[in-house]
Here is the input.
Amino acid sequence: MKFHSSDNWNKIFDCDGVLYFSQRCEEMLFHYASEKYKVPLLNTKLLISEYLITETLINRNKISQHHLDYIFGEFLFSFSNDIAIKEGWGKVNVDRIVKSLVQLIEKRNPKYLNI
Here is the structure.
């Protein structure tokens, strides 16, 4: 759990609920917070952008390939559970796309996929 300092809050401030709310929001957005506290803020579109940016950095040898593993796993989860996509394309089509993506990644680099 992240350390929270309330030193900058006025001591006579009578709304403990607001302080608690702000601390919970900070906890949900904190990068190293436990998964049970985090909010799924990255939607499918943002995960695709993050994947492409990360792949560009990998191609420039700035970071290693294993960074894509986490992003791809999160993308598959988000894509599979995206209500708007399922409603628009149907569950069968979404499942088929997920299966195709997993097979494509496995063909490119079988050691890479760790989902």
